[in-house]
Amino acid sequence: MTVPVHSLPSLIAEGMTVVPVPPALKGPRKFSVISVESDDREGSLVTFEDVTTISDAEELVGKTLLVEEDCLPENFGLVNTSLLVGREVRDKEHGSLGEITEVLVGPTQNVWVIEGSYGQIMMPAVDEFIHEAPVEGSITVSIPQGLLRLGE
After folding, report:
1. Are 136 and 145 within 8 A, CB to CB?
2. Is the Cβ–Cβ distance between 125 and 112 less than 8 Å?
3. pLDDT, tens digit, for every residue of 82-140?
4. E-strand stretches of the chain
5. Quick one: pLDDT at residue 8?
6. Where are the domains of the chain?
């Protein structure tokens, strides 16, 4: 039985073992991924071992699938967002933007709330804007046009 899985982005891969949350009271609590195919509906079609009927598949509807950290791709960055709070953010063109006061965690991207001389800035935390993010010290970005209140 193949089950549609929707996530942003889909990190599920053949050979992984996933744990649906919340777990079922009866039946298997872990499932091995047999195959993964792209789905035109913004997701993946996943075949799980031991999911052989529609009834089995329906048990997974609406569940979050957890996977062990070791199974994630090497380039997948897990970030402890609390370590970003208090860090200075510097723009390549405008200099210091201020400090990160909060990280809003979203399904597709995080947003940094930066407080400083330009007021509050809400910057999407995406690779396109972030140039350098060392473990310590200031973070260098190129803030997208329109996010700064210049001349106000």
Report:
1. no
2. yes
3. 889 999 999 999 999 999 999 998 767 889 999 999 999 999 998 899 999 888 899 99
4. 2-5, 17-21, 31-39, 43-48, 64-67, 88-91, 95-104, 110-116, 119-125, 130-132, 139-141
5. 42
6. 16-72, 77-141
Cα–Cα distance measured from residue 148 to residue 11, given in angstroms and rounded to the nearest whole number: 34
| Phi and psi, residue 4, nearest 5° | -75, 135
Does residue 65 contact residue 39 with C-beta atoms inside 8 Å? no
Yes or no: say if 98 and 117 are a contact pair by the CB < 8 Å rule: yes
Predicted model pTM: 0.54
Exposed, middle or buried: residue 4 (CB in 10 Å: 0-12, 13-18, 19+)?
Answer: middle
The domain defined by 77-141 folds into SH3 type barrels. (2.30.30)
At residue 120, the 3 state secondary structure works out as strand
What is the C-alpha to C-alpha distance for residues 148 and 95, in angstroms, rounded to an integer? 12
